[in-house]
Amino acid sequence: MPSSQTIARLLLIVGFAFAPSIAAAQAKPAAGKPAVAKAEKEENEEKEEKGEAGEKKESVAKLPAAIKTAFSKAYPSATIKGVSTEKEDGKVVWEVESTDGGKGRDLLYSADGQVIEVEEAIETASLPAAVKAALMKAALGASILKVEHLQKGTTEAYEVQVKTAKGNKEFGFTPAGLPWKD
Dihedral sign, CA of 40, 45, 47, 48? Predict the structure, then answer.
């Protein structure tokens, strides 16, 4: 079984496999695109004001007491860096972005303080062997930027963000090394 250093070296040496798809994604917009982008931006801003799209930044002071209690009990040494709300399955959920011992951790809570999802930064060396092997095949020659472990109910997954010559790409894997999408 190759070591973490061997895997890292292979990822750096082998080459870049994503050039065609990344190049297409980064192609310059066609004429008329700025007007479309501006209209989409205005529409998204309007939806966000109404609470229909994406995350809405909130102050820590607005965090429900049940969430504050659950968070501080589970992570007494963590620092809250940001709070936001969004709708998921028609219900408002709260995201708490935090750091703990220099590691990032994002948690998704229901308003009553129940944890819905935990996303934690981990070291590459902590990845299961099957995930490392799948990553080697999927991300040939890419540099690893960020590795996260996700837990949502009984679902466990790993997300790995890599940097290629043409840009960043994210991969998701189950603990068995199978492809995974959120």
Answer: positive
Residue 85 pairs in a beta bridge with 56, 94
Q: Residue 96 — left, alpha, or beta (φ > 0 → left; ψ -120 to 50 → alpha)? A: beta
- The pTM assigned to this predicted structure is 0.68
Q: How many CB atoms lie within 10 A of CB 159?
A: 17
DSSP three-state, residue 67: helix
pLDDT at 61 over 60: yes
- The CA distance from 41 to 118, in Å, is 30
Q: Mind listing the domains of the chain with CATH numbers?
A: 4-26+54-173 (3.10.450.360)
pLDDT confidence of residue 140: 86
Inform me whether the pLDDT recorded for 134 exceeds 90: yes
CA distance 3 to 26: 34
Give the residue, 48 or 74, on which the prediction is more confident: 74
Integer Cα distance of 27 and 4 in angstroms: 35
